[in-house]
Amino acid sequence: MEELQDAIEDAQYVNAIATQEEGPRPVLAWDKPTDEQLAIWEADTRRKASPNGPKPFSTDWSLQSAIGLFLFSAYLKEICDDFHRINFVEDVIRWKGMREKRKFEKAVEIYETYLAEYKIDQQTGAKINPPKTQITELDLSREVPGIDYDDTQFLYASTVDPTYAHNCLGLKGSIIREVSETINSREDEMKASGVPSEVNGGSSASMRLAKEKRYESLRELTQTWRQKENPDACLPQTLFDKAEVVVVESLRRQHWKGFVESEYFRKFRNFLWFQDRAVVPDDFFNMRVLGRGGFGSVIACKRGVSGKLYAMKVMDKKRIKLKKSELLTVNERVSLAAVESPFVVNLKYSFHTQESIFLILDLMTGGDLGYHLQQKGKFPKKECLYYAARIMLGLQALHDEGYVYRDLKPENCLLDEDGKVKITDLGLTTKITPTLHGAAGTRGYWAPEMLRRDKKGKRMAYGHTVDWFSYGCCVAEFISGANPFRSEAALSFGLEAGMETKEKAIDHATLEMHPDFPDSLFEKDAADLCAKLLEKDEKKRLGTQGCEEIMAHPWFKNLNWESIITDQKKPPYTPPKDVNAAPQSEIGTFHEDKKHQETVLELKDERYYKDWDWTNPNAYAAEVIEFLIYERETGEPLLPVSQNTGCCCIIM
């Protein structure tokens, strides 16, 4: 009977994975608040609002939410047939997220489409209007420009003229001239610099100059991605701010009252109320167990109201208490919430019950790189480059938030259904401190500084550079199929030095051995990269000054970093749909021993989990907008269906 149930769960899981692209398949209706619940929630929202930010439920406040922007845009287009002004706002938001050359090209396109005088059709003599477009992104939200209310009103009075028919926004005056002059000035600078993207041959000085400029370009690219500051290498982020605020003000004056009185605004409030309600296990439908760990299981699940598939990590509080690992689990939850990156498995929701704690994560259906290495022996160069690039950016995302990962290995790098790799399992991730010390992770991937001791025999402190050593081990393993410090050569090196156990031999090799990178497996640039990443002296190790050092290495010279950073690069390998569907018999079950049964959870144990519950606002917004886009495309409301039928929720 258990085998039959396992087979049914396997079939449901594989079918759910295979039908994801067909659209959301919700099985629960969205809860709707009563008038009393909504009033209490609105009052609480106003009370918690920042005194320095927009007032809750105002235009600026609402458009800072991806859901609010989507629904206001839908109201303007579907009810008011007013496209051009909100399309301009949407295009400016997209432009602000772009980089380098494409950003300049988009700025010119926005200016010519919305701000310059109408183009005229040569045959008919009619004005050419911009195309009417819909929001297709799941994360488009507006950051309010730093222009205060009085200045906005002055700009509106001096710029907006409904009778001005020379452009589709009805704008005139100095703000259009400022945009035009800034774009023209930057274009002149680009032409004057005339720096070639590549240097073929030439003197060593010219080649060095080209390399330096390439390095600076990578630095500018990653600075923007890492959001430390915008270097304004292309155009200032404020280029369209004045035009944007007056356009939003014109929309507010003409349409906001109607929007607030519409069903669209009611949906918006209901969705935000739903986001703030407590998440519970019954919000998810479990499909099958994917694996088991020390504290619990990882289960493929579906979010009932949206039909979105996730991985649910369930950890038993008693097991955590038995192993005194409360702080370890809390640390994982905190670091997951702090780092949101396309290169790291992201946390969507966290909640807990009396017995268990839950993490809802990206569902990675393509298996781990350890599994794929075992199947292939080693990776082709295209795959090595792609995986290495994304893993590097995942590590840097952690470092930028002040964390060190400490557990990088192929088994902790997961593929999604398309083949995009992400770092997972942040249980050993921790904040970098001046006294951080001690080996953590998997032997053979440890950096030498994790093993060193001072003259008094005490462990020595380390920082983020330990991750770049582990990274070097992984890159070498991708290329050759073997970790340099978990190889026969490393074992022999340690044993010959008098180490008595396999573990001590590996540690000795990590500290003292300089691996060989044979020509038969490593091209020259690959060997050089691995050697510099596996440098024993962490102060000289590649990556010490940040990931740009590694990105600029010649091994990556043909990689389009723009496409990698923007998550647009198509993976070189697509895993099979059912790669994670291992038989339940192999996964096994937990044995509830006497110690577990006798462990008692006390009130004081709950202090560890008092801040555990969390909803990722970006993940929630993406669920809602994907749901709304599907409704828009089909022209019908999504209705909840039986979980067993696998089909299609009425939305408020």
From TrEMBL:
Residues 557-624 form the AGC-kinase C-terminal domain. Signal peptide: none annotated. This is G protein-coupled receptor kinase. Pfam families: Pkinase (PF00069). InterPro entries: AGC-kinase_C (IPR000961), Kinase-like_dom_sf (IPR011009), Prot_kinase_dom (IPR000719), Protein_kinase_ATP_BS (IPR017441), RGS (IPR016137), RGS_sf (IPR036305), RGS_subdomain_2 (IPR044926), Ser/Thr_kinase_AS (IPR008271). Residues 58-269 form the RGS domain. ATP binds at residue 313. Keywords: ATP-binding, Kinase, Nucleotide-binding, Serine/threonine-protein kinase, Transferase. GO terms for molecular function: ATP binding; protein serine/threonine kinase activity. SMART domains: RGS, S_TKc. Residues 284-556 form the Protein kinase domain. PANTHER family: G PROTEIN-COUPLED RECEPTOR KINASE (PTHR24355:SF18), G PROTEIN-COUPLED RECEPTOR KINASE/RIBOSOMAL PROTEIN S6 KINASE (PTHR24355).
